[in-house]
Amino acid sequence: MYRISIRYHFDAAHFLRSYPGKCSQLHGHRWVAEVVVKGEVLDDLGMLVDFSLIKTQLKQALAEVDHRLINEHAYFQTVNPTAENLARFVFGQLRELPAGVRVERVRVYETPDAWAEFGEV
Asked: Is the pTM of this model over 0.70?
């Protein structure tokens, strides 16, 4: 099994609804999203998939929340904008992959030391 990964950062604000602490207040982060895709077959160039394709799709997904209040995005109107839910959101946005390549996981870092992940079991 081959795996490749791309990381990309974005800046956004959020607040957690019904949270019993400081995070219920509006605040911002420099988030990092990391995508891992996997597959068993390389193309004629010896690549699973071009890094630039994954990076482009990741950037497109993050453009919807970059430099914004995440809570205002349609997806997060009823879903709390936690790192876990951001990871699930990004995972769902990555669709245009070559045959045999699939997203294994998306990891979203809220800080350099704290992340949440969504992906295959």
From this structure: yes
